[in-house]
Recover the amino acids of this structure.
């Protein structure tokens, strides 16, 4: 049990991307939201602003996350605290490739990744260990700075996955089986020393590790 003060942090995943990018490894690249995803992002921001509004809004620098964070911050009369540490996993040479194309160019690569996301990471991309270090450091910075204030942090599937991995004590392989859906909201209580509690998960937690 940690003696550090806890900070309530709602982890929010961005909305649906355009159809051309679904099923591809877009990772940390910029990809546009679908029309539905953009509209739903605005509605989610409105709901977050009216339902237990946060004191701080943090976000990945990518536009699909900012589509929720920016209107939320505007509704609250505050600014978005952008941290590069919350950018999605870098997929290296797999970026923008469909999984079929990855298999064609790198036979067996996806199975190797799912079995060991460190040794099986995409060429030129981030390993699980490096990615976790980046995201966990950004999370600890945010919690230390917020110092107990209610926070909404908008980011990505793998970013949220590895934050939950640390909270739940999961292995990398175990955590790859747990993914929140588009616009999923996860309630947590976090401390600046890397501890905390998982309070709620969205109704649908889906196996979507190949985003």
């Amino acid at each position: 049990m940690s003696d550090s003060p806890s900070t309530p942090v709602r982890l929010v995943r961005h909305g649906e991307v355009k159809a051309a990018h679904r099923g591809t490894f877009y990772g940390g690249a910029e990809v546009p939201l679908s029309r539905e995803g953009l509209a739903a992002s605005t509605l989610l921001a409105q709901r977050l602003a009216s339902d237990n509004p946060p004191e701080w809004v943090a976000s990945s620098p990518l536009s699909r996350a900012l589509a929720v964070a920016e209107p939320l911050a505007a509704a609250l009369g505050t600014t978005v605290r952008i941290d590069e540490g919350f950018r999605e996993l870098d997929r290296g040479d797999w970026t923008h490739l469909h999984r079929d194309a990855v298999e064609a160019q790198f036979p067996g690569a996806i199975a190797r990744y799912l079995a060991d996301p460190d040794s099986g990471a995409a060429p030129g991309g981030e390993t699980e260990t490096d990615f976790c270090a980046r995201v966990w450091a950004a999370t600890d910075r945010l919690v230390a700075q917020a110092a107990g204030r209610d926070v909404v942090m908008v980011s990505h599937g793998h970013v949220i996955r590895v934050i939950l991995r640390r909270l739940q004590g999961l292995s990398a392989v175990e955590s790859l089986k747990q993914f929140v859906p588009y616009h999923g909201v996860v309630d947590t209580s976090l401390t600046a020393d890397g501890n905390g509690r998982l309070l709620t998960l969205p109704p649908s937690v889906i196996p979507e590790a190949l985003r």
In short: The first strand starts at residue 7 and ends at 13. The CA atoms of residues 25 and 135 lie 19 Å apart.
